[in-house]
Recover the amino acids of this structure.
């Protein structure tokens, strides 16, 4: 289409202009396209520019205004978090919010229809911008995700999301989106009434013009295709009973999920509840007040810190992955839960995968597990039936090594035994191409020990997944001295293609994550043997912020697996990492945790029933008071001490990798910012003081790592 008018100044520096405003045949097209950025964000630069355009638009005689993005696969990904985090004081944040609210109110007040044409990520401030329009059209592209994820940063929507969304789709649906931070597909957003039409990406402009022809939107809700129950729930939220029926239920759910550690969801509930009893303008003021209180909180600072740390970790992995070679066909050796999970993850991301085990019975269980995971995706509408069939067709079960003749990449996930792994490596190399990459999924065995029997040790690498594979986001890749850079880069590329957050660590017993997890679990066991009850140990750690207590975690992993790993670690690090000797009695009693029906807890068909009193007899236990604060402090300090020792050993050195690894790998409480962030916050001088205290009471396992002692002496911190 020919351009009839372009509002940009001829003298303006085009590299600084965050968008374009063009008028074609009476339709104004405002294209958001921040220069030098992969995604669009609502920065102060954009808002200032957009506000100038709104001055022009307010007096123009257009048929419609259509907002769109100039970046493929993204509309607006949210507010500029870097700018927000860099704000010098509360007043600066308040001014940003004031400008943003004024801008969106001016947009919604334009005398002609405004349409947001959405293709790709429309999140946070991006959705709030779209909500200020009259109509929203979204493409059915898999990249189109719509949501308000601010709670994941310890915040609430700050540009009207808490006020406009519930007014549009009703309180229950809006609470569900805002309190979870979930990202919706275009179809789900259509069903909820957030968007008004969906289309193919190639017809977005035509769809936007078609919807614009409807004119200005009339005031009132557009509750979409929600059922009767949802509409009744919204009516209740506006009634005197709403507090008890809707909002109290939401508060109860948040408390159960967060244990009170995250204030943002509670603030969101209050702001929505208060705001809907006010005018929109007053509701926006209420939203701003709550946002400002949250943005200066330690929780928000820590969660925003994690956001930037993850971006840095991902950027390093992406740069390394570019040096890898292409992988089209892969294989997984071992069809147990871990191996089957890895195979499903590869098939899900488009790889052709041979899944091998020693017999058809084991193989069948693995294939069934893969099928279950894909069926879950279908039920959640992430996949349709055709996609499930296509994914399963990419899986090639076998009990022979023959299919490995044509694969590029193998992940070995057999029993955690050095002799077995070396045997599988030798058999694989005899059947596979000479340049095959062999990635071993081991929890504790040094990769160099496995690679020493290889004809091509430069092609052998560690690839440590976490269970369950389809849920755990971290992948720990282990580099031994002889591995090639090409092998390393290719393995990182495969991990990233599987959607994992990848950290690269050096070789050594337990590598990084399992090495530092061991002392944490070990200390929980010491607290138990000293007289704390099973449920008291777990409750203390859960209240501190862990997703589950250490004893529950050990039951999930398997006492037999944990005990074997502990033995391997003790062989290398001595009695500093010894488990209490009484644990042997639980192993001798056949306790394997959930999978065996009994561990520290009893299980009925996989469902936990409660602590097993027989454990106390097996431990020779005498009840004694161990305060909850003591349990949590001893456990996290033991983990921190081992982290410092791993850093001293050069297993891992970058503080960002350290914190992301422990958060994404074992669920270290995110609201605390990471284990090194927490150490910095407490102060290393205080950390060493507390370690010395416990060393005097419990022995040399609490002796502070030399790194901590030196950093405390010099006043150093882990993070700048």
């Amino acid at each position: 289409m020919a351009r009839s008018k372009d509002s940009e100044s001829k003298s303006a520096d085009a590299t600084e202009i965050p968008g374009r405003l063009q008028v074609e045949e009476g339709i104004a097209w405002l294209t958001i396209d921040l220069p030098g950025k992969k995604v669009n964000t609502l920065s102060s630069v954009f808002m200032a520019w957009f506000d100038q355009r709104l001055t022009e638009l307010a007096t123009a005689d257009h048929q419609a205004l259509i907002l769109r993005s100039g970046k493929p696969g993204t509309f607006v990904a949210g507010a500029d978090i870097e700018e927000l985090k860099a704000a010098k004081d509360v007043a600066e944040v308040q001014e940003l919010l004031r400008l943003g609210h004024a801008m969106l109110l001016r947009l919604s007040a334009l005398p002609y229809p405004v349409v947001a044409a959405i293709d790709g990520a429309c999140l946070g401030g991006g959705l709030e911008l779209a909500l200020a329009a009259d109509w929203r059209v979204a493409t059915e592209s898999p990249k189109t995700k719509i949501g308000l994820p601010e709670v994941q940063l310890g915040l609430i929507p700050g540009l009207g999301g808490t006020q406009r969304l519930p007014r549009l789709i009703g309180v229950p649906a809006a609470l569900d989106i805002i309190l979870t931070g979930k990202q919706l597909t275009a179809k789900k957003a259509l069903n909820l009434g957030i968007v008004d039409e969906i289309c193919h990406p190639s017809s977005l402009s035509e769809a936007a013009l078609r919807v614009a022809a409807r004119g200005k939107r009339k005031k009132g809700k557009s509750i979409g295709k929600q059922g009767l129950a949802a509409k009744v729930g919204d009516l209740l939220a506006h009634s005197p009973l709403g507090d008890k029926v809707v909002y109290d239920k939401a508060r109860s759910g948040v408390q159960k999920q967060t244990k009170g550690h995250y204030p943002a969801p509670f603030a969101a509930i209050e702001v929505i509840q208060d705001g809907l009893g006010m005018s929109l303008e007053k509701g926006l003021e209420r939203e701003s007040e709550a946002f400002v209180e949250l943005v200066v909180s330690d929780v928000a600072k820590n969660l925003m810190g994690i956001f930037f740390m993850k971006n840095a970790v991902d950027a390093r992995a992406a740069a390394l992955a570019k040096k890898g070679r292409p992988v089209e066909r892969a294989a997984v050796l071992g069809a147990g839960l871990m191996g089957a999970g890895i195979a499903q993850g590869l098939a899900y991301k488009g790889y052709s995968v041979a899944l091998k085990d020693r017999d058809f019975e084991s193989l069948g269980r693995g294939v069934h597990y893969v099928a279950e995971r894909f069926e879950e995706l279908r039920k959640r509408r992430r996949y349709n039936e055709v996609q499930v069939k296509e994914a399963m067709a990419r899986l090639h079960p076998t009990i022979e090594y023959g299919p490995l003749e044509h694969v590029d990449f193998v992940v070995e996930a057999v029993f955690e035994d050095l002799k077995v792994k070396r045997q599988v490596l030798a058999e694989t190399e005899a059947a596979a191409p000479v340049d095959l990459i062999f990635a071993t999924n081991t929890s504790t065995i040094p990769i160099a020990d496995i690679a020493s029997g290889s004809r091509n040790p430069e092609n052998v690498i560690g690839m440590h997944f976490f269970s369950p594979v389809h849920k755990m986001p971290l992948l720990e890749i282990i580099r031994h001295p002889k591995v090639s850079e090409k092998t390393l880069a290719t393995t990182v590329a495969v991990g990233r293609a599987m959607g994992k957050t990848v950290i690269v660590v050096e070789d050594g017993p337990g590598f990084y994550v399992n090495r530092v997890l061991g002392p944490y679990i070990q200390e929980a066991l010491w607290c138990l043997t000293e007289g704390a009850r099973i449920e008291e140990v777990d409750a203390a750690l859960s209240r501190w912020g862990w997703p589950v207590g250490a004893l529950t975690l050990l039951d999930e992993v398997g006492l037999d697996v944990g005990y074997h790993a502990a033995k391997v670690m003790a062989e290398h690090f001595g009695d500093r990492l010894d488990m209490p000797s009484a644990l042997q009695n639980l192993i001798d009693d056949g306790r394997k945790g959930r999978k065996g029906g009994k561990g520290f807890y009893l299980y009925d068909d996989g469902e936990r029933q409660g602590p097993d009193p027989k454990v106390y007899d097996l431990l020779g236990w005498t009840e004694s008071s161990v305060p909850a604060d003591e349990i949590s402090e001893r456990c996290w300090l033991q983990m921190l001490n081992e982290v410092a020792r791993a850093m001293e050993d050069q297993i891992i050195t970058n503080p960002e990798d350290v914190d992301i690894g422990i958060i994404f790998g074992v669920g270290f409480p995110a609201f605390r910012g990471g284990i090194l962030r927490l150490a910095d916050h407490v102060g290393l001088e205080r950390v060493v003081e507390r370690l010395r205290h416990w060393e005097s009471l419990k022995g040399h396992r609490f002796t502070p790592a030399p790194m901590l002692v030196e950093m405390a002496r010099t006043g150093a911190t882990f993070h700048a």
